[in-house]
Amino acid sequence: MSLAHTAAEYMLSDALLPDRRGPHLKGLRLELPLDRIVKFIAVGFPLLLMSLAFAQEFSSGSPISCFSPSNFSVRQAAYVDSSCWDALVHHEQSEPGRYKPKSLWPHKALPYSLLALAMVMYLPALLWQYAAVPALSSDLLFIISELDKSYNRSIRLVQHMLKTRHKSSDPDDFWDELEKARKERYFEFPLLERYLACKQRSHSLVATYLLRNSLLLLFTSATYLYLGHFHLDVFFLKEFSCSVKTGLLSDETHIPDLITCRLTSLSVFQIVSLSTIAIYTLLVPVIIYNLTRLCRWDKRLLSIYEMLPAFDLLSRKMLGCPINDLNVILLFLRANISELISFSWLNALCVLKDTTTQKHNIDTVVDFMTILAGLEPSKPKHLTPRVYDENP
Predict the structure, then answer these.
(1) Which long-range contacts does 360-364 make (Cβ < 8 Å, 24+ apart)?
(2) Residues 362-383: pLDDT tens digits?
(3) I need a labelling partner for 326 at 20 to 30 A (CA). Which of 22, 74, 312, 335 fits?
(4) The pTM of the whole model exceeds 0.85
């Protein structure tokens, strides 16, 4: 028996998780993977297009080319190009002899509008960083720590039961005490469960998460309106009529009223507009999917941790409407599953539990580990008064 007892002690000691509190948990993921992808694309793509627009402008020189009269000198032609780019107004003929001015400022404002778009798209992530991350970080640190500690407490409890059983002179007394402890619910550690139940009645994290994704949808809709209203109006206008008869040149008779100019950067303008619409259109379903995840529970994680004593959120049907902070925390626990060392152990125990022939005797990790340690989860049937009569 001593050999079996020693082997059981080694097995239980190996099942204990290492104490890794402190700096190891500072690498928590405080953004969901899909949220991080949305942020990088929504913010990084406009910045990439902005850099390409600036690079094209610096490498190609002037973004317009005006057809000045042949009697203009080189300096006069350069002045016409500069003046028309500064004004960037198309004089469209509405009636014979009358012209209607039409501003082409979206071409000039293209790089700066992309910068503004990137800054606006970063605001939801900034809101999440300052409004939700501090509370979420403390919640995750506490819950991950308590989940691993609850698992370790279960293993230490089985170690204590094994030592008590080994030292007990009367096996019947040990089983009577064990059944009394189960009946009085001494094996339960309700702090974690009550904390999670409290988070089920809190809505600060979920409100911030909903606001973050709602702002992304709002800013995406505003981007569509901006591109549709301003960019579409000048999207196909490759040439425009520019007037340079302003200021000191207003009375010059040898200067024509209008000079035709060509937008050499129109293809870049069109590519930027179309690619921005395409990318943000692809992001919309991802943002909507992030919102729909709040409408259902991730019960797989909870079902595995129901192997812990006093952790029965599912069996007690404490899970009501999923739009609360607990559901958000469960999503982030899933994203930080690598920090939950106890998850892999409990997952393995759940698989073994499903294959065992004594399913009716296994409710918690304590029950399963007592079987692995050589104990029964309840009083063995062979311990009857007749056995003690034969062996006084």
Answers:
(1) 364/154, 364/187, 364/307, 364/308, 364/309
(2) 667 666 666 665 666 555 555 5
(3) 22
(4) no
